[in-house]
Automatic annotation (TrEMBL):
The chain crosses the membrane at residues 46-63, 95-117, 137-170, 190-217, 229-247, 259-277. GO terms for cellular component: plasma membrane. Residues 280-299 are annotated as: Disordered. InterPro entries: TM_pro_TauE-like, TSUP/Inactive_protease-like. Belongs to the 4-toluene sulfonate uptake permease (TSUP) (TC 2.A.102) family. The lineage of its organism: Bacteria, Bacillati, Actinomycetota, Actinomycetes, Micromonosporales. Keywords: Cell membrane, Membrane, Transmembrane, Transmembrane helix. The keyword Transmembrane applies. PANTHER family: MEMBRANE TRANSPORTER PROTEIN MJ0441-RELATED (PTHR43701), MEMBRANE TRANSPORTER PROTEIN YJNA-RELATED (PTHR43701:SF2). It is a multi-pass membrane protein. It comes from Micromonospora echinaurantiaca. It comes from the Bacteria. Pfam families: TauE. This is Probable membrane transporter protein.
Length: 299
């Protein structure tokens, strides 16, 4: 086994840990890992990431389902609508240049990072719906699925906000339900990609197995790390990854220009400061849901 493959498999564990702890983040890590460490072409990396994230989410959903944190009707309808959008996105990606896909992916990473650093408004005191309106679920599912299939990203960090912020589901339920949705539309997006892209099934299987093992570790760690600390740290990590992916799309002379990077650093600092300031004025934060410590210890 080569050093590159060992490093890829080892880092794939982090993908699973992210899904186990946060209910998302798998594709945000999987695509850069497969492109820049495993040295896969961009479209093959995106297709492989859909397999990895889909399988890991399907396994990670099981403890949430046992704990009653899955809204099955909402999840299945959202997932079916998302599968339609994801398949269309995967087919559309055939006609979009790889550089544009990766640039869009990086922009989504940065937007996700800001949302994580800011946190979410608390929904305390609001009645929690058992299931969401069907038409809203279908519309949200198609839009989120299209993005997922197109760039191989946006799983939990688009589905969870859609369910929690737009739908009003409690965060633990939104996280559990999102894993059902992510699994369904990730496999649909993969089907769309396989019509035009071939993947290395051996590498994909190794990365998927490592990510699944990581998801078990993430579930056991859940509740032991303060959610607010974990969320912000992961958000800053995603900022670094997003800037790195964007940098790879620049011409070589720009990548080596120190003035450009100084400007990027200042702009990022200002953007995050403004985001945090807006969050402080808007009210308290709701932590990312995690598996209760008691249930983790029983596994």
């Amino acid at each position: 086994m080569s050093a590159t493959l060992l490093l890829t498999v080892a880092l794939a564990v982090v993908i699973g840990i992210s899904l186990g702890l946060l209910g998302g983040g798998g594709s945000i890590l999987a695509v850069p890992l497969l492109v820049y460490v495993a040295d896969l072409p961009a479209k093959e990396a995106i297709a492989t990431s859909l397999l990895v994230v889909g399988a890991t989410s399907a396994v990670g959903m099981l403890p949430h389902a046992r704990a009653g944190r899955v809204r099955w009707r909402t999840g299945l309808i959202f997932g079916l609508a998302g599968m339609t959008g994801a398949y269309a996105g995967g087919r559309l990606a055939e006609f979009v240049p790889a550089g544009i896909l990766l640039t869009g992916f990086a922009i989504m990473m940065l937007a996700t990072a800001v949302a994580m650093i800011r946190g979410r408004r608390s929904a305390e005191g609001k009645p929690a719906p058992h299931e969401l309106p069907v038409l809203r679920v279908i519309l949200d599912g198609v839009v989120v699925g299209l993005v997922t299939g197109l760039v191989g990203a946006g799983g939990g960090f688009l589905v969870v906000p859609a369910l929690a912020l737009l739908g009003g589901l409690p965060m633990p339920v939104a996280v559990g339900t999102s894993l059902v949705v992510i699994a369904m539309k990730s496999f649909a997006g993969l089907a769309g990609y396989l019509s035009s892209v071939s993947i290395n099934w051996g590498l994909a299987a190794a990365v998927t197995l490592a990510a699944i093992l990581g998801s078990f570790a993430g579930a056991r760690l859940a509740g032991k790390i303060p959610a607010d600390v974990l969320r912000k740290a992961f958000g800053w990590f995603v900022v670094v990854m997003g800037v790195f992916v964007l940098a790879q799309q620049l011409p070589g002379d720009l990548r080596s220009n120190p003035l450009l990077w100084a400007g990027v650093g200042v702009a990022a600092a200002i953007a995050v400061a403004l985001a945090l300031g807006g969050r402080r004025r808007s009210g308290p934060r709701e932590p990312i849901a995690s598996v209760p410590a008691g249930s983790s210890s029983r596994r």
